[in-house]
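User: What would this chain look like folded?
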Amino acid sequence: MTHLESQICSHLLLAHYGQIVSKVGTHLIRTGSQPLRLIAADTNTPVDQVKKALCVLIHHNFVTYHLHKRGYVEYELHGAHVLRILRYPRYIYSAKTLYGDTGELIVEELLQNGKMTMSAVVKKVVDRLTETMQDNQSVENIEASNTFVRLVETHFLQRCGSVPEPAADDPSRPPPAPTLVLDEKEMYTVPDLSLIGQCRRRRRVSGDSGEPKSKRCKLNPVEQELPHNDGVYWQVNFDRFHQHFRDQAIVAAVGSKLDQTCSEIVRTMLRISEVTTSSTSSHTQPLSSNEIFRAFPTGYNLSKQVLDQYLALLSDDPMEFVSKTGESGGGMYMINLHRALASLACATVESVVQERFGSRSARIFRLLLRKCHLEQKQVEDFAMIPAKEAKDMMYRMLSENIIFLQEIPKTPDHAPSRTFYLYTVNLPATARMILQRCYKTVVNLIDRREHETRENKRLLEKSQRIEAIMASMQATGAVEVQLQEIEEMITAPEQQQLEALKHNVNMLDSSENQVDETIFVLESYIATTRIEKEVPAKR
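Assistant: Here's the prediction, encoded as structure tokens.
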């Protein structure tokens, strides 16, 4: 993990979980795996507080533990998991887009708490949905349960590992570190909690009747299922959300390059194979044109013949997003996910080059991408740019590590007069460099937001106090004149200052989300290049 990434992790842990958790997490980032006593000694923190901090980090899947060969337990923090906090608003917004307000609240609760049981999630979501609608509580219970089930069925939520129960006749001592076991077949199996709304209503009614608890359990068998179901904990499946973001980016790219119908065809292909395709797979599963036609939305009124023409157009497109395999029966079509991510990363890098160095430099960059290796004279001729300007642009991009210079000597002495100097583009290296600059941008945005909040701390505290006073007076039935007098405690200049602060913070948050979109594309592309290198090595 780079220094910039560790800085972001420290800022995020401090902002969301407090100083002690941030201190422990930052220490684990810098030192790697360490046992509990050494963490407490190095951070000058009491062991009890370190234990609580580690519990928080483990509960949110930021820290994992393993048993050392000498018998003690070591803890290791995963910085990539902490960096996902930047993407939390995007996860929540995607859940709202796909499953409405109920899906948004379910994902938000799980992100805030790390791991929760289904009954606890449903209860919290229902309480938030029915604060002002007590009469529709049973309806909200059913809706929340159904939305939770749909999120699990589409793999946006998954089960957590559990500790296996020891055998009754096993006299051996428990291990120092428990091992979590998870059956892949049960990862997306939901316990039956469809009657949770009726259960809660019956519990309230029976609670006032004075009957013994054993008798109430016999009258209401649903309550007996809840303890068993409450032992299953759930968490957000981040890989599935990343797969959804990747698919959305691919669909948007096809729509901007071709048309809306082509993007809808690609969306249909991705939707068919979204659950069956792994997040690390290079291609989606092969699909016939008949399968795509049956799953295509009916609102487009697209005939089978026109669909075949569109599929042929997509398979022949230079982007190579859609590949065709086999010729019998019309062939099978699949989406080349690695190629799509490479195209998205290339477009991102090209836009950065154009914004930073100008359109002519972007022309040279695209030329080197297409031709791979060119001499300086060839670049000048192909790009149709004067020699002096082309030389200046290439040297600027060379100094910024956008393009690279490769030497090919004719003789072993590497004499300049007998050496070819070829300019080239190393897209993975350039993507890593831009990714680090994106991390630096995120650090600057976080620092600027903290500075804005710190500079206006007194005004913010005053505004919060006035809002609390107004809320309490409204609850007691204060008249409009009294409320207006309290509002006037904030002067006009202070109100303008608050509006300016709110605008600046919103702009910083929006910028952070936009930078995270670029980070996601570059990280996904770098991960695919790493996978492509590992697969031939294993073979």
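The radius of gyration is 29 Å. If you want, I can go into more detail on any region.
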